[in-house]
Structure formats: structure tokens, C-alpha cells
Amino acid sequence: MIPQANPGAGYRALKAEIDEAVARVLSSGWYILGNELRAFEAEFAAWIGVSSVIGCGNGTDAIALALRGLGIGSGSTVVTVSHTAVATVAAIEMTGATPLLVDIDPVHYTMDPEALRRALEQPLPGLPKIQAVVVVHLYGQPVDLARIVPLCREHGVLLIEDCAQAHGARLQGKRVGTFGDAATFSFYPTKNLGAFGDGGAVAVSDPAVAQRIAALRQYGWHKHYISDEVGMNSRLDEVQAAILRVKLAHLDRHNARRQQIATAYTTVLENGPLRPPGQRGDADHVYHLYVTRSRGRDRAQAALKQQGIGTGIHYPAPVHRQPAYAGRVALGPGGCLETELAATEILSLPLYPELTDAEVETVCGALKSLFRHD
Ligand SMILES: *Cc1c(COP(=O)(O)O)cnc(C)c1O
Known about the structure:
Helices cover 40% and strands 16% of the residues. By secondary structure, the protein is α/β, with parallel strands linked by helices. It has 2 domains: 7-102 and 109-248, Type I PLP-dependent aspartate aminotransferase-like (Major domain) (Aspartate Aminotransferase, domain 2, 3-Layer(aba) Sandwich), CATH 3.40.640; 251-373, Alpha-Beta Complex (Aspartate Aminotransferase, domain 1). Strand 10 (221-223) and strand 11 (226-227) form a beta hairpin. The longest helix is centred in the C-terminal third of the chain and has 19 residues, at 251-269. 50% of the residues are buried. The chain binds pyridoxal-5'-phosphate.
């Protein structure tokens, strides 16, 4: 069986280096907010091209911390998409803000700038003022920021980039995470940069915002034991930070391998029954997921499973169709029709850097067999 994702293979490939890093932390006697985290924060900030990174407990908290650090909470509406990990919307509500969900473009699966423009120009009666937009660089593909950044500026709203699936992706040569007022990352084990537990981070370039977020992640302490404001407890521990330092050194190579596998799949899928993902011309897609599309999605998934190929659906239900949100969460003008259609047609193929050439060949062979049945 070839799984869709395989974080255990990621450990085995770097076992000696990771074991050494973990042992170093365990022997050090210092487990929270120490030298490993400080070093990782500095290394990751330099790698992205921002002045500060603040580690935190997970990618959901990172979004909530970024919003709170920028002054967003109750009394604010935050625009995002419904075609995302539910975490994006959960984090907005954690701050007390009101989410407003807009549609995606059906080729890249990221926020449709036209849908955002309509939401900004036609505010819904009864909703607080729109004060921020959270874009999601979904599947490793950068959002159309060339159109979204000017819209945010024009309307005076903050821009937060959810980079949980796009560590290292580039737009016009610049890494994602450098375009907005803050950017957030998750280090969940299957992400392009994955820990072996939970982890997250916020990237910012304004030192005052960085300082506030660093306080918010630890009870709102600017000074030990004194809370200047109500914070939370969301820290990236020393063991995970040391592991992430090891993995960061391999990330460019791992992203290149993901791209190589994606190219192999796309070559096979040209003119086939599963449509390959669209790729933005000015972008460097880092393929957190390789998402195909077809009307016969369920049949294709079953046929691949029979041949030992694991697949996934990211995500089977748009946020506004999930029981916790349905009928309650606000949708932008025009609704989310492309989002609803995509959820019924998308299918994620196996993709992780440790897939061998032989395994990629096996997946390609199974994909070719789908053509014969159609
Ligand atoms: C994984 C993910 C998150 C949440 O990260 P956690 O570390 O699981 O809290 C947020 N947004 C997106 C787009 C994600 O893929």
C-alpha cells in the first residue's frame, strides 16, 4: 500500500540527525522557550525573508495569535474561504471575530479576488466592519496576491497569509509569508515542514506586533508573571524546535522532490480522466498536496485503492456545510458555488518527499489504468 502521506518515512530518512537533536534537548534540562526555539525562529525568519518568527503550539493558534497581535477580535469581520482546513475559520472565531466566507477560483482552489472585491464593496447588513482578510495558500499554491494585495490596501483591511500548506512557495520570486501584515505556519507532521507532534509559528516584520504576539503566546506576559493583557498558552517546545531545525535544512530539497513527483503525475494525467491541478504562471507551487479533479472522483478513488494506492479528499465538506457552521456562518455575495462543486470532485494523490521513483512509477501505472476503464 502506498499511503497518501507518510510522516514516518520522513523520520526514518533523517533518523540519525533527528535522534541526535532530540537527545541534545533531553539532556539539556531546558524544555520550553530556550535556545533551540530561539535558533529555529531566527533560522526560519531568515529562510522566509521576514524579520521575526514567533513559535507557538500549532497552526490554528498561529492564526488566532496573528489576528490578536494585529488588534483583530470581537467587533471585526474577517474574510476567508470555505475551501480550507476548518482550522482557518475556527481560529478566526477563537479571537471573537466574525468570519465571512467567500468563493474560490475553480482552477487554483484559492480565494477568488472577484468574490473578495464583492464582499468588500457590498458589506452584509448586521455584520461588523471587515477589518482583515485571511488568504490560504492551499495545497502549496500561492494565492493570487497580485490582485488581492491592492484590494486590501484600497479598502484599508489587514492581510494575513495562512501558509500552513505552503512553506517555501514563491510568488513573483518572493516567498509566501512576506506579502501581508502577518503570516502563519503549521508544523503538523504531514506539512511540508513537519514536526513530530504539534507546532506552529507566526511570521511578521513589524517589531511591535512581534513583541505583542510573543507576549500573547505566554499568558500576555511582557515581563515574567505579569500579564499586561489576557493571553493564552501556546508555545513551540524545545524538542519540536530542535527537530524543525534539522528538517528546515532539508526543506528546499524536499520541496523540489515534491515538485518532481507532481511533474511525473501531471505528465501521465494530460488528457486523462483526472484533471491535473492548475498552476499559476508567476508562482512556484510546493505541492503540499497533488489534487486532481473529476466527475468520477469516487470511482477513481475506489479503483486506485484496489491497486494499493492511498488517496485523500482535502476537504470533503466546505466549512459552511459542516454541522458546527452550517446555517450560522456568513457567506459573501454570490455564495460559494465553486467551493461546493470542488468538494465533490477533488482527489489527492500520494505525495511526500520519500516516495521512491519505483513507487511514483507504480502510482503512474495505476493512473494510466484509469484511462482504460473510461
Ligand atoms: C494544517 C492547517 C491549519 C492548522 O494547523 P494545525 O497545526 O493543525 O493547528 C490551518 N490552516 C491550514 C490551511 C492547514 O492546512
